[in-house]
Predict the structure.
Amino acid sequence: MIDGSMLPVHAGAVRLFLHVLGASVWVGGQIVLAALVPAARRAGGPETTRVLARRFQLVAWPAFALLVGTGIWNLFAVHVGDQSDAYLTTLFVKLLLVGVSGAGALGHTLFARTKPALGGALAALGLAAALGAAFLGVLLAG
Ligand code: HEM
């Protein structure tokens, strides 16, 4: 007989919820934007895509900051100093990908207007790195 009581909410659940929320906006947002931009450009021209991209940044960069903040919280929560070499290597590669993801996105915003091909390549690199970071995150939490 189910007594109706739910699982207790502990700090770890809040920490991972916030980390995954940041990841869903940062990674999911880039995927959705990549799907919407070509249609927006056809329908409204380059100014429309610029308005969309600028709007996306208003949620994307706070999401990235949330990822870094909750990521550091994760490191304390998992007692990173006590983890295995394999865990630390996975974490190191993940943090490299996080850096490439942020630098790629920033590079994209800097070059998208003046060097569209380079801007596009940096956006693709940033998204690929973010997807890799998300996968390694699930591996770490597994
Ligand atoms: C692009 C940025 C990032 C993405 C997309 C990302 C994504 C994720 C995901 C999806 C998880 C798995 C959560 C789960 O299975 O419940 C995770 C876990 C984790 N992330 Fe991140 N993360 C990012 C940045 C960071 C940063 C900057 C740090 C450290 C400073 C970090 C440290 C960790 C740790 C230690 C875990 C394991 C948490 C646990 O076992 O409780 N992450 N990450």
The two ends are 31 Å apart (CA to CA). Residues 34 and 122 are 13 Å apart (CA to CA).
